[in-house]
Amino acid sequence: MTRLKFFLFLLIAIFKSHSVSAEGWPTIELSGIDLTTVKRIQIKEDPVYKTSKEYEAIPLAQVLSRFPEADRAAKDRVVVFTAKDGYSVSMALADAMSEHGYIAFRDTEAPSGQKWLTFKFGKETITPAPFYLVWPKQGLDKWRYPWPFQLASISLQPASTYFGAAAPAKITDDIRTGFNLFSTYCIRCHSVNLSGGQVGPELNVPKNITEYFIEAELAGFILNAPAYRSGTKMPSFEKILDRQQAKAIVTYLKQMKNEKAGTK
Ligand code: HEC
Questions:
Q1: In this predicted model, what pLDDT tens digit does every residue of 31-75 receive, in sequence order?
Q2: Which of 40, 216, 230, 263 is 20 to 30 Å from 66 by CA-CA measure?
Q3: DSSP label at 189?
Q4: pLDDT given at position 202
Q5: Residue ranges, CATH 1.10.760.10, the chain
Q6: Are 108 and 122 in contact (CB under 8 A)?
Q7: Distance between Cα 107 and ligand 1 center (Å)
Q8: CA 209 to ligand 1: nearest atom
Q9: Mean pLDDT, to the nearest integer, of 26-35?
Q10: 240-246 — which CB contacts under 8 Å span 24+ positions?
C-alpha cells in the first residue's frame, strides 16, 4: 500500500465510521443553530489542510448545552456526529464538554461569497461544508477528539445503542474501562459481534480473539502491532495507551467471548 493510500485509510478511520440512524435520540440539526455568538479561532495545524487555519466557529459546549439536562446527566452517553452522507463518529460526552471543541462554519481565508476552501481527500476535492468540528488546543489525541467534517447533526445516544452488539451486557469497572477504550480507539476499524468498522478483522465471532491468540501477547500487540507484524495496517498505540489500558481492552474482549451475538 502506498503511503498516500495508507494515510487516506487512517483518515477515513479517524473521520468516519459506520452509518447509523440517530432516530429516537435527542438530535440537534446543525443547519438550525444560532450563529450570532461567533468567535474567530486559530488552529495551529489543521489535520485536513495540513497548515494553520482560522475559522469562524461556535463553541461545541454551547451547542451541546441545548440537549435536555436529563440526557446530559445520564450515564454512558456518547456524542454522535453525523455527516451529510450518513456516516458518523462518536466521542465521550465528558471529552466533548471539556476540551473546548468548536463547530466551524466558515474559513476566514475563503474568497468573498464563499465559506470554505477545498482540500484533497483521496481522489476527491472536497470542502468541510457545512460544518466541521475543530480543536484549537494543540496536541490532542485525534482518536479521542475527532475532527469530522461535512457535519449535518449531533445526537446524544447511550453507548449500548450506538455500538449495538459490541457493547457488553455484563458491566464491571474493568469491562467498562476496556469497552470505553475499545470504542474510542478500535471500533472504527474492528467489529465485535459484527458491530463496528471493517478495516480490521472481527474480534469475537465465530471465534473470540482470546480463543486463538496467545493471550499474554495480546496487550503487547494492541500497544504496538508493527512490532509484531511488519507491514501491518494497524497503527501503533504506544504513545497513546499504556499497558494497563491495553489490558483493560483485553478484559473487555475476553468478556465478549461469553456474549457472542445470538447467545445473549
Ligand atoms: C486503522 C485501523 C485499525 C485500528 C484503529 C485498530 N486496528 Fe487492530 N487491526 C487492524 C488491521 C487492518 C488488522 C489486521 C491486519 C493487519 O495486521 O494488518 C488488525 C489486527 C488486530 C488484531 C489481530 C487480529 C488478527 O486476527 O490478526 C487485534 C487483536 C487487534 N487488531 C486489536 C485492536 C485493538 C484492541 C485496537 C484498539 C486499541 C485496534 N486493533 C485498532 C486495523 C486497526
A1: 999 888 899 999 999 999 999 999 999 999 999 999 999 999 988
A2: 40
A3: T
A4: 98
A5: 164-259
A6: no
A7: 36
A8: 29
A9: 92
A10: 240/141, 240/143, 240/185, 241/181, 241/185, 243/219, 245/177, 245/181, 246/218, 246/219, 246/220, 246/222
DSSP letters spanning 102-135: EEEEEETTSPTT-----EEETTEEE---S-EEE-
Three-state secondary-structure class, residue 192: strand
Residues 6+ apart with CB under 8 A from 118: 125, 126, 127
Q: Which ligand 1 atom is at minimum distance from the Cα of 10?
A: 1
Topology at the third CATH level for domain 164-259: Cytochrome Bc1 Complex; Chain D, domain 2 (1.10.760)
Model confidence pLDDT, tens digit, residues 149-174: 999 999 999 999 999 999 999 999 99
CA of 200 to the centre of ligand 1 (A): 5
Q: CA–CA separation, 167 vs 175, rounded Å?
A: 10
The confidence band for 8, taking pLDDT boundaries of 50, 70 and 90, is: low
Return the C-alpha cell found at 227: 512490532
Question: Who wins on pLDDT, 90 or 11?
Answer: 90
Average of per-residue pLDDT across 72-98: 92
Say if residue 245's pLDDT is above 90.
yes
User: Ligand 1 mean position to 11 CA, how many Å?
Assistant: 16
pLDDT(10) > 80 = no
Ligand 1 atom nearest to 241, measured from its CA? 38
Q: Which residues line ligand 1 (CB under 6 A)?
A: 10, 13, 185-186, 188-190, 199-201, 209, 221-222, 225, 229, 232-235, 237, 249
Produce one character per residue of 39-64: b if its CB has 16 or more CB atoms within 10 Å, e if not: eebebeebebbeeebebbbbebeebb
